[in-house]
């Protein structure tokens, strides 16, 4: 699948959404699958994963936050996923219907922060997970504007701006802002917004299959 990317940072370019208030320090979402219980999930560990399957009319996604030594929030539609200070990394599994879904990563710490967010789509018949979105700034270390620019440049090198063309999800309208600070001061706030565009069709090939690359 192709992906359309629009990446901005503070002032100029496309109109940016205002920095939002930080959500409450809790996960508010319907979590799915055998790795989840109540408001928490365990991270999958590769070959030993228990089998998963989304209900009809939905697709399952893993949202992985961290490792990071600060709090992180991700919202998808009205769901809020929260990684606390007590845990370096948290994973969440959610079922999403086809369509366009706004996603927001939010992080704030006056002394600087590291942020890492990875979203993966479950392949049909438990054939693995497609890489849908991967963002990292700092983590380890602190996020700065140079790292954000490097991430933007890396994304531009992906064929059709997507990690795995075998999947069925596009990432659109990516834009970030960090607030206004002198260029040599690491940001204390980050808001990253994009659209998770979930297509209805079921992917044919497992993650990373060479047949998908031929069709790009």
Which outline best applies?
Answer: globular
β-strand percent reads 25-35%
Measure the end-to-end span. Answer: 7 Å
Q: How many strands?
A: 11
Give the low-confidence spans.
Answer: 1-7, 9-13
Radius of gyration: 17 Å
What sequence of helices (H) and strands (E) makes up the elements? EEEEEEEEEHEEH
- In DSSP terms (H or I, runs of 4 or more residues), the helix count works out at 2
Main sheet summary: 5 strands, antiparallel
Spatial order of strands in the largest sheet: 5-4-7-11-10
Number of domains: 1
Structural class: mainly beta
Notable features of this structure?
216 residues; mainly beta; five-stranded antiparallel β-sheet; disordered N terminus
How is this structure best described in words?
The protein is mainly beta. The protein has one domain (36-214). It has two helices and eleven strands; from the N terminus they run βββββββββαββα. It has helices at residues 145-156, 210-214; strands at residues 36-37, 40-41, 59-65, 72-76, 79-83, 90-96, 99-108, 115-122, 129-137, 169-177, 189-198. It starts with 35 loop residues before the first strand and ends with a helix.
Reconstruct the topology from this structure.
Elements: E1 36-37, E2 40-41, E3 59-65, E4 72-76, E5 79-83, E6 90-96, E7 99-108, E8 115-122, E9 129-137, H1 145-156, E10 169-177, E11 189-198, H2 210-214
């Amino acid at each position: 699948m192709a992906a359309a990317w629009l990446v901005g940072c503070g002032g100029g370019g496309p109109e940016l959404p205002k920095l939002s208030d930080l959500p409450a320090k809790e996960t508010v979402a319907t979590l799915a699958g055998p790795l989840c219980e109540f408001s928490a999930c365990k991270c999958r560990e590769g070959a030993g994963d228990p089998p998963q399957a989304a209900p009809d009319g939905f697709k399952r996604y893993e949202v992985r936050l961290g490792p990071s030594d600060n709090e992180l929030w991700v919202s998808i539609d009205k769901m809020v996923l929260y990684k606390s200070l007590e845990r370096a990394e948290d994973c969440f599994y959610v079922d999403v219907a086809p369509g366009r879904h706004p996603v927001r990563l939010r992080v704030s710490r006056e002394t600087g922060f590291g942020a890492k967010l990875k979203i993966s789509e479950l392949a049909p018949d438990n054939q693995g997970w497609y890489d849908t979105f991967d963002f990292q700034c700092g983590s380890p270390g602190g996020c700065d504007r140079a790292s954000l620019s490097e991430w933007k440049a890396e994304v531009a090198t992906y064929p059709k701006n997507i990690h795995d063309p075998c999947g069925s999800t596009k990432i659109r309208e990516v834009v970030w802002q960090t607030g206004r600070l002198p260029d040599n001061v690491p940001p204390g706030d980050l808001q990253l917004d994009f659209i998770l565009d979930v297509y209805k069709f079921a992917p044919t090939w497992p993650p990373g299959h060479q047949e998908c690359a031929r069709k790009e």
